Amino acid sequence: MYKKLFSAQAVAALVLAPLAALSAPPIFVTATVAPSGRTVTIPQRAVEVAPNVFDLGAAIDPASGGPVQGYMIVHRRAGHAKGGTQSGGNASTKCYAYIARGTKWRIAEPWTVNPANTRGLAGEFVVSTLASSVAKWEDAADGITGNGIGENILGNGSATSSALSADTAAPDGKNEVYFADIADIGVIAATIVWYNRLAKTLVEWDQVYDDVSYDWSAAGEAGKFDFENIATHELGHSVGMGDLYTSSCTEETMYGYADFGETKKQTLNTGDIAGVNALY
Q1: What CATH number does residue 200 fall under?
Q2: Distance CA 121, CA 174 (A)
Q3: How far from the centroid of its chain's Cα atoms is residue 102's Cα?
Q4: pLDDT below 70 — which residues of the chain?
Q5: Domains in the chain: how many in total?
Q6: Which domain holds residue 58?
Q7: Are the C-beta atoms of 139 and 268 separated by less than 8 Å?
Q8: Across the chain, what does the average pLDDT equal?
Q9: Which of 57, 67, 126, 219 has the fewest CB atoms within 10 Å, counting from its CB?
């Protein structure tokens, strides 16, 4: 389902604090893009167990040596809906759901992004937007936004010029984000998560953003997907949140569909905040 990784030829390494308000101003180098020709696909064995959620099967976590389960969650454009109800293991009338009930990060781990893309998004913008979007979920973990109190859930981020790879067969101990061609029609982005079912612990997440089928914007432009809008949604999956598909939950960041020019997912809504607070 996924095709063509892209690698950057110049991006400065950087480390970001989990809460943007506490981090020092980073220094960036603009990335350039060269197609690598590598491909990433959803394995044929993967089964769609809920709308837009594919079970990747069981594997072994290299860090702990324990058994883990993988899911790939795809984010479709409005108009390419496949129907269904809330995904992720528990439907909620309170406008939040989880990938797997009670499953979350127990220890914060670092993540890496290759910000190179074919749509003109500056590397510094991509990295800082991911960091600030992580901070939104972490800030909301105490049930109140904007008070500077929360949880360190996803750890620090760094940029790289190396090619990254989404792990669909087994986790590799790295949380990776990059742009690529997603072959499936209507898919904007995808997040892969691996978790220990018995310990209810998330152990890895990877993300892919389609920059071949779709154009991207830093300012909610018509005919383009707003990167902050989509990234904030995808990072909800990274912390353990599931998609929503009910008509009463369309204003939530975790609503399962998005469209061009949309920016409402940039800000966590009541259900998003209640959900991450109940989880952490």
Answers
A1: 3.40.390.10
A2: 24
A3: 19
A4: 1-40, 42, 80-93
A5: 1
A6: 2-279
A7: no
A8: 85
A9: 219
